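Hello forum,

I keep getting stuck at the same step: I have a sequence, I want structure tokens, and every attempt I make locally crashes halfway through. Rather than fight my setup again tonight, could one of you with a working pipeline run this one for me? It's a single chain of 401 residues.
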Amino acid sequence: MAENITTIHLRRGKEESLQRCHPWVFSGAIERITECEKPLTEGDIVDVVTKQGDFIARGHWQIGSIAVRVLSFEREAIDQAWWNRRIAEARNVREALGLIGNETTTCYRLVHGEGDLLPGLVIDVYERTAVVQCHSVGMYHSRQAIATAIREAYGEAIEAIYDKSSQTLPFKADLGAIDGYLWGRCAERDNVVLENGLKFKVNWEEGQKTGFFIDQRVNRDLVRQYSKGRKVLNTFCYTGGFSVAALAGGAKEVVSIDLSERAVKLAEENVRLNFGDEANHTAIATNAVEYLRDIDSDYDLIILDPPAFAKHHKVLGNALQGYKKINARALEKIRPGGILFTFSCSQAVSRDLFRTTIFTAAAIARRKVRIIGQLTQPADHPINIYHPEGEYLKGLVVYVE
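Reply #2:
Ran it on my machine without issues. Output:
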């Protein structure tokens, strides 16, 4: 029996990137659309074919410059069995990484969009709760199938699945999405997770992203290694992950800065959770850029982990100016012999472009700078080799004379 699926016909020559397994079809590559009996709506499964009519891929249709996010390069049913296989394979990767059943780290990313061949989907696991974020309408429509696949892959190891898609779905989709539990409900104890043996309270119901920035796990551990005896400034601190790591590494003093008063309170709470009231830690709700301008040169380790300055290429120029400004200020202020950890999580900023921006900031600050580390996202945020855009997190560790 023929499948009732709309067909997307590409312009001549526009199939080349798909033949290299790139998982996106751009709207400008489409010549025409042959609808099936059911009118095409955002989130539907569609087939993509060449101008000659040869099948290339199957994926979710969406409105915007990326018109199709590819789910499969085979003509296969996207049914519950398919979802079960894809989630199970993602779990197998995390098991191979030593993240499942790990006694010192109980939070990790289970699905990382294109990196796990599931574009538009993010799933993070916190102890016994899986938090789902859908970035496309197609994934949102499939959320119950996704929840079923998670339960199939984990069994009793997962007690709750929470959908936190209201802030990540396309605005114009107007789905009226409301965050909430797709299945089960977590116990209060599950709000505290371990990362490299350190405790963090996670609030997936009200916090940013899925509740915690899991992608800095390896980099936080590196800060821990470099912090002994140093006075540390953690800007854009959010829940204080780098601050806790620095204190665990023997920092003599840590100052956490964030514009959000709520974030500052979370950072204080996480410090207290690990070290009681004895830690030499100060948290200040203020603008990080202004704080860097006004401080004395008494910090010998500074962390710059700002939010994405460039969500897309249209604002790339302004973003690079922002990165240059904050890095120049940090490099001007840091003590001789100091170490700067600096990051960009903007997908539009390439690794080479970020490095050039830090070079420019060093020249403005007139400091002698050595690169002693080049950082990226951890292994549970894999990069699809056919989708290099997935390498969004880049960082440098620099030693300043």
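The chain is about 30% helix and 25% strand. If your local run keeps crashing, start a new thread with the error log.
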